[in-house]
Every structure is written in structure tokens, then in C-alpha cells.
Write a structure and sequence with these properties.
Length: 341
């Protein structure tokens, strides 16, 4: 007869893991209600917050009590709520904001995660099955959600840009192209450290229509945008090409097509930096951020997070030469350096 584990604490630990989505959904509601913005001007009473958010007072209190119990916001002795540094990560339109990620991850992404078993059983994409279209088509058809995703990726980028800049010298490269560069955050940071360089943010036309408005004034004369598909023609003759969090969105066949197109555009001697999470090849299954990020990729796209061996295979198949792996201080943004020889 089957029995529960001898250690009851293991059951409680499993309950804790299973219930993790509770607080995540609370954070999603807090983001939807703009609570952080409401508290930016100072502490507010429950009555004030209920009125400003058009919420049921008691239900709102239960929500705020829950998130405050894990350190998001502060509840003062007089019953008012106050913004703290942790809650400040949910402010809109601030560098490194996590709010867009909360809205996307617990919004349109959530349905895909609820369909995860479908992906495990079939090898197909849960998002595609849940919505009837691929994620990138979804964002084309839902531009507000697409704009929010761009902000979400910018927020994540803000957390890793310094890590990338700290370990790689961009100054020797005078012409730089960021392929799939989205809102341009990476290229803007690179050009800031390489004052003699010029750059191109390359992405789909509907993306770069917004990116052009985000170029900082001090680098506008050195930065341009170009719309297109990285499955087709790319900007040619650049000294350095970069892809950050792009290759992991596509399966091996699709990734090789992208890398072959980059190879075709590259002059001999130019470099490509593939910036992605690189899961260790070692046989011990130790914790690594890429292993959980991989589940997000599996739920949403045809891609996956890869080991260095898997990246080397893609690089070799595309005609490029692997040079070295450069680790940063974050597990989600290692640099695979390649060259066209």
C-alpha cells in the first residue's frame, strides 16, 4: 500500500511550491489596479484606495494584506498603506520596472502555462494550442499587449545590461547591428560605452516604428532602426552583430536559418554575440535560472534554452566559428562569441 513520505515537512514544501501562483496572481491584480502608482504620492487609506481603484473595500484589503505580508508595500499602524522599494518595482515607466512582466506573465502567458501538459505530451507549443495562433502573431493582432511585452523585455534587459557591458569591450567595433533588438535598450547601452561607434536596431517593422521614438537624444546621430525579418535579408557589412534573447525563441531548424542569414550578411572577420541563458553541460542537475526559463520558452514558443554544446551545434551548422563563452554575473545572459572566418 502506498504511503505518504515519512517527513511531513516534505508535504508542506510541496504545498508551498504548488501554491506559488497564489501570490503571483495577487501581484498581477496589484499591477492591474495600479496600486504602486496610487501610493507614489504618499500613504493612503483603504477607503481612498478602494475609491481610486473602484474596488470592493474588504476584498481590496485582503489583497493588500496578502502582498504586504511578503514585503510588497507597508501597512502602517494607522491602517494606511505605503509604497516601499520592493513595491516600487511595480511602478510604470521606470527603468527596470517589473510591472509589464507581471501583466504579461499572469495575463496572456498564463493560459499557455495552464496548457503545459499538452506541450509535454505532443512536443507542440501550448500557447499556439490555447490561442489558435503563434505568440508573435498574437502580439501583431493585439498591439497593446505587444507594446506591454516590449516594456517587459526592456525591464528584464535593464537588469542585465550592466552585466553584459562589464564583461565585453565594444569599443573596437565601429558598426554594430542588434538583430531582433526590440526597443533598442541593448544597443543604446552599447553605443553609450562605445562613443565612436554607430548602430542599427533591426526588428519587425511594427516594433521599430516604436523604437525610433526611444532613441536617446545624445546618440540619435549614431543610431538608426531598420524593419524586416531575420528570416530574410539583414543589414550587411557590420563589424559586430548581436542577438539577445532571440535564438532561444526558435527551434534548431529555425535558429540555424536565422544564424545563416546573419552569416550571409557578415563580412569576413566580423563577430556575432549570441546573448542567452547557457545551461551547464555537466551531468549534475543543479539549480540554474535557465532551467526554469526554459519552461517559459516551451510554453510560449518553438524554442528552448540551450547548453553550450547545443549552441556550438547551431553555430557550426550556420557556418560560423565558435570563439568562446563569456559568463556574466547573471545566469540568463551569457555571451556566446562567434566569428565569420
Amino acid at each position: 500500500m502506498k504511503k505518504l513520505p515519512k517527513k511531513p515537512e516534505l508535504s508542506f514544501k510541496m504545498y508551498e511550491l504548488i501554491s506559488g501562483y497564489w501570490i503571483a496572481c495577487c501581484i498581477h491584480s496589484v499591477a492591474q489596479l495600479d496600486i504602486a502608482e496610487k501610493l507614489l504620492s504618499g500613504s493612503k487609506s483603504l477607503d481612498e484606495l478602494a475609491k481610486e481603484t473602484n474596488s470592493d473595500k474588504q476584498s481590496l484589503y485582503r489583497l493588500l494584506r496578502a502582498v504586504t505580508s511578503v514585503g510588497i508595500f507597508e501597512e502602517k499602524n494607522d491602517g494606511t498603506f505605503e509604497l516601499n522599494d520592493f513595491g516600487g518595482t511595480l511602478l510604470s515607466d521606470v527603468p527596470g520596472s517589473v510591472k509589464p512582466w507581471a501583466l504579461a506573465n499572469l495575463g496572456e502567458h498564463y493560459k499557455a502555462f495552464g496548457n503545459l501538459t499538452y506541450g509535454v505530451k505532443t512536443g507542440k507549443v501550448p500557447f499556439d494550442d490555447a490561442y489558435g495562433i503563434p505568440v508573435w502573431e498574437y502580439y501583431k493582432q493585439n498591439p497593446e499587449a505587444g507594446a506591454n511585452l516590449a516594456k517587459a523585455m526592456a525591464g528584464m534587459s535593464g537588469a542585465v545590461l550592466k552585466a553584459i557591458i562589464d564583461v565585453y569591450d565594444f569599443k573596437p567595433y565601429k558598426k554594430i547591428a542588434d538583430i531582433g533588438g526590440g526597443n533598442g535598450a541593448l544597443l543604446f547601452a552599447v553605443l553609450d560605452t562605445a562613443p565612436d561607434s554607430v548602430g542599427i536596431v533591426f526588428d519587425q517593422p511594427y516594433v521599430v516604428e516604436q523604437t525610433v521614438n526611444l532613441i536617446p537624444p545624445d546618440i540619435k546621430h549614431r543610431c538608426m532602426v531598420m524593419g524586416g525579418s531575420f528570416f530574410e535579408e539583414l543589414p550587411a557589412d557590420q563589424d559586430l552583430y548581436m542577438t539577445k534573447w532571440v535564438i532561444h525563441d526558435w527551434n534548431d531548424e529555425e535558429s540555424i536559418r536565422i544564424l545563416k542569414n546573419i552569416y550571409k550578411a557578415m563580412p569576413v572577420g566580423s563577430k556575432l554575440l549570441i546573448i542567452d541563458s547557457v545551461i551547464p553541460d555537466d551531468s549534475e542537475n543543479k539549480p540554474h535560472a535557465g532551467k526554469l526559463l526554459d519552461i517559459n520558452i516551451m510554453a510560449m514558443t518553438t524554442g528552448k534554452e540551450r547548453t553550450l554544446s547545443e549552441f556550438k551545434y547551431l553555430v557550426e551548422q550556420s557556418g560560423l566559428t565558435f570563439k568562446k563563452l563569456i559568463q556574466t554575473n547573471t545566469e540568463i545572459s551569457s555571451i556566446v562569441e562567434c566569428e565569420k572566418v
